[in-house]
């Protein structure tokens, strides 16, 4: 929704010149989506919200469009007192952002719930992932590969012998996998939800139950093309076993993720260290 559309549907009145109000909406939605979501959690008590955008602002408060599992809804948040001038809006919004952020830091249950919701969102849309590998000489490579996820947190991909990443996986036995939120659905492009996993890589022989199970899942997920690729013997199933996981939900919202049970998360402190989860043995 553009700022013009938002203003047409908001409670914005003559207190704000139209250009000023449009600037506030655009700036907040483009650069401070995390703060708007915190407004929804704290002031509107919408703890299940996964995204929010500012749709209007006037002398007495602001309007948000909040995304929850059940869909979008409009909410009104009143200012503590009416603004005396349009220039007051900046400091009031900053102060409210600080107030909304503090309870999140002090409430680990809410932070954990948000992290788990982000993981569920990433898992539900998981079809491909970014794969980072390096050659024996240290030459890096980045690619996109199909993936299927097992109940124990391991991932499997199907890769061509001709690809640089396949050679790198054989040489190093390691990879970094990133699952990231779609740009088209992200509230803030620079703070997209993403899960990065440091993995050990192992090639799976064709005549094994694991290979058959993975190919069945691949065909269900990707359709007829996998029926064709399954018979190509220069393609290989590779098992990617996470040793460490790191989830980013937004600016300043990073969590260590248990490599076996992704529902177990721990907030990463200011020193960059998590609290409580160790690597998979």
The poorly predicted ranges are 1-12, 270-278
Rg (C-alpha, Å)? 23 Å
CATH fold topology of the largest domain? Pnp Oxidase, Chain A
| Overall form | elongated
Largest sheet, in brief, is: 6 strands, antiparallel, barrel
Task: Please report the total strand number as a whole number.
Answer: 11
N→C terminal distance: 47 Å
GO molecular function, one term: coenzyme F420 binding
Protein name: DUF2470 domain-containing protein
Domain Pyridoxamine 5'-phosphate oxidase N-terminal: 117-249
Domain DUF2470: 22-96
Summarize the SSE layout with pairings.
Elements (H helix, E strand, L loop, with lengths): L2 H6 L9 H14 L1 H10 L8 E7 L3 E8 L2 E8 L10 H18 L1 H17 L3 E7 L5 E10 L5 E6 L3 H9 L1 E7 L13 E11 L4 H14 L1 H7 L4 E16 L2 E5 L7 E3 L14
Antiparallel strand pairs: 1-2, 2-3, 4-5, 4-7, 5-6, 6-9, 7-8, 8-9, 9-10, 10-11
Structural features:
disordered N terminus, 3-stranded antiparallel β-sheet, Split barrel-like, alpha+beta, elongated, 6-stranded antiparallel β-barrel, 281 residues, 11 strands, Pnp Oxidase, Chain A
If you had to describe this structure to a student in words, what would you say it looks like?
The protein is α+β, with helices and mostly antiparallel strands and 281 residues long. The chain has two domains: 3-106, Split barrel-like, CATH 3.20.180; 121-267, Roll (Pnp Oxidase, Chain A), CATH 2.30.110.10. Helix content is 34%, strand content 31%. It is built from eight helices and eleven strands. The protein has helices at residues 3-8, 18-31, 33-42, 89-106, 108-124, 164-172, 209-222, 224-230; strands at 51-57, 61-68, 71-78, 128-134, 140-149, 155-160, 174-180, 194-204, 235-250, 253-257, 265-267. The strands form two sheets. The chain has a six-stranded antiparallel barrel with strand order 4-5-6-9-8-7. A hairpin with a 2-residue loop joins strand 9 (235-250) and strand 10 (253-257). Helix 2 crosses helix 3, helix 3 packs across helix 4 (89-106) and helix 7 runs antiparallel to helix 8. The longest helix has 18 residues, at 89-106. It is elongated. The termini are far apart. The model is unreliable at 1-12 and 270-278 (pLDDT under 50).
């Amino acid at each position: 929704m553009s700022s013009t559309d938002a203003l047409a549907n908001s409670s914005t009145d003559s207190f704000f010149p139209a250009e000023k109000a449009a600037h506030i909406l655009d700036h907040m939605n483009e650069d401070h989506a995390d703060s708007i979501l915190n407004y929804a959690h704290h002031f509107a008590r919408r703890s299940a919200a996964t995204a929010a955008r500012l749709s209007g602002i006037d002398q007495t408060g602001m309007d948000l469009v909040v995304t929850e599992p059940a869909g979008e809804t409009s909410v009104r948040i009143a200012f503590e007192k009416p603004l005396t001038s349009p220039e007051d809006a900046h400091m009031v919004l900053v102060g409210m952002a600080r107030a909304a952020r503090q309870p999140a830091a002090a409430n680990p249950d809410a932070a954990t719930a948000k992290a788990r919701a982000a993981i569920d969102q990433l898992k539900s849309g998981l079809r491909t992932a970014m794969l980072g590998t390096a050659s024996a000489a240290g030459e890096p490579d980045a690619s996109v590969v199909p993936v299927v996820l097992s109940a124990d947190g391991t991932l499997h991909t199907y890769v061509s012998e001709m690809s640089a990443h396949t050679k790198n996986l054989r040489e190093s036995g390691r990879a970094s996998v990133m699952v990231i939120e779609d740009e088209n659905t992200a509230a803030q492009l620079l703070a997209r939800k993403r899960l990065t996993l440091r993995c050990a890589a192992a090639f799976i022989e064709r005549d094994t139950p694991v290979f058959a199970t993975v190919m069945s899942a691949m065909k269900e997920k990707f359709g007829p093309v996998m029926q064709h690729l399954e018979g190509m013997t220069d393609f290989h199933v590779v098992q990617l076993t996470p040793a460490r996981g790191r989830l980013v939900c937004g600016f300043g919202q990073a969590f260590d993720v248990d490599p076996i049970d992704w529902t177990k998360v721990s907030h990463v402190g200011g020193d960059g260290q998590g609290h409580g989860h160790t690597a998979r043995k």
